[in-house]
Every structure is written in C-alpha cells, then in structure tokens.
C-alpha cells in the first residue's frame, strides 16, 4: 500500500530525519517492517512519531482485546472518521483475525448490528456511541465492563482513541490508500 500526501513533505528514508532522531525512525521501521500510514507524515516531528509509535505497539500488539475485537474496534473508528487509509490497511487484517464478513459489511455500510455475534455487536456499538455521542450509554458501558473487565474496557477505549488520533492525522494530511474503501467519504 503506498502513501500519498500532498499537504506536507513525507519522510520515507532515515536520512530525512535529523541524525539525533534516527532512533525514532529506526524504532518505527523495526516494529512495523516499513514506515507507512501516518508515520511518513508524523516523522516531520520525530519525537512525536516515536511516542505515537510506542503507544501503537502496545495498542496493536500487546493490549488485552483479542485480535478480532481490536480490529473490529479499529474498523469502527476508521468508518466513523471516513478514514480511507485506516480502513484499507486494517480490513484485510480484520479478516485474518477472524472478523466475519457480515460484521465488516455492517460497519462499512453503517448497518444494524442485529445479525452480529454478541461480542462483535458490543464492540461496534461501544465505538459508535463513543465516537458519535462523545460518551457511552450506561447500558453499553456496563455490558462492555462485564464482558471485558476493567483492563479490557480501558484498553478497548484507548484503542479507539489511538486510532481516532491516527485517523485525524491521515485525514488532515490527505494520506490515501491505493484503492477506495467500500464507503464514500
């Protein structure tokens, strides 16, 4: 997947980062295999990019939600922000993590959650409420807390927040995927 940004210069090579910030570039490249997505833009501020990358490593690879739950939360966030790049990158990851096609379609088309598995519906509902209403209803929160526990609901909320920040970066700087997502922004 190529990154396209016409708003500010992108950083795609280590030599573009000040020498005293090479460590930031290296950490991002090492943990993600490539410098892509929001990072070529974020590396205009290497310290910020490094801190964002560090948090992302926890959220994406170490936090408590299952891969399926995490990727469904990410797709929900991408859809709520109409973030084409985030969707295009994570939709195949979601499939690999076991998110069923009907859940992906329901998120993409902003459809009812009635036909989804209970946990899938809970993750999407939690994300939709938080991102649309800037709050989560007591009913949804209690269901999520009962299902995920204190650490799980904290990690789920932070996952949504982290990918919201990335969606803002990707959208503001117009970083686009090669292919269009299954929704119109």
From TrEMBL:
Residues 1-24 are annotated as: Disordered. This is Carboxymuconolactone decarboxylase family protein. Residues 46-110 form the Carboxymuconolactone decarboxylase-like domain. SUPFAM superfamilies: AhpD-like. It comes from the Archaea. Residues 1-15 have a biased composition (Polar residues). Pfam families: CMD. It comes from Natrinema versiforme. Coiled coil: none annotated. One of its GO terms (molecular function) is peroxiredoxin activity.
């Amino acid at each position: 997947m190529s990154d396209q940004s016409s708003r500010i210069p992108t950083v795609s090579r280590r030599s573009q980062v000040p020498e005293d910030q090479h460590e930031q570039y290296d950490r991002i490249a090492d943990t993600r295999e490539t410098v892509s997505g929001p990072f070529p833009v974020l590396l205009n501020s290497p310290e910020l990019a490094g801190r964002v990358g560090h948090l992302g490593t926890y959220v994406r690879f170490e936090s408590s939600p299952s891969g399926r739950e995490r990727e469904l939360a990410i797709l929900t966030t991408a859809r709520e922000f109409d973030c084409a790049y985030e969707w295009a990158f994570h939709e195949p990851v979601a499939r690999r993590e076991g998110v069923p096609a009907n859940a992906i379609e329901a998120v993409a088309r902003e459809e009812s959650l009635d036909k989804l598995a209970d946990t899938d519906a809970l993750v999407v509902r939690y994300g939709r409420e938080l991102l649309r209403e800037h709050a989560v209803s007591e009913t949804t929160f209690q269901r999520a807390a009962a299902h995920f526990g204190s650490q799980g609901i904290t990690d789920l909320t932070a996952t949504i927040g982290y990918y919201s920040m990335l969606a803002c970066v990707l959208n503001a700087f117009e970083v686009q995927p090669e292919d269009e997502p299954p929704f119109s922004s």
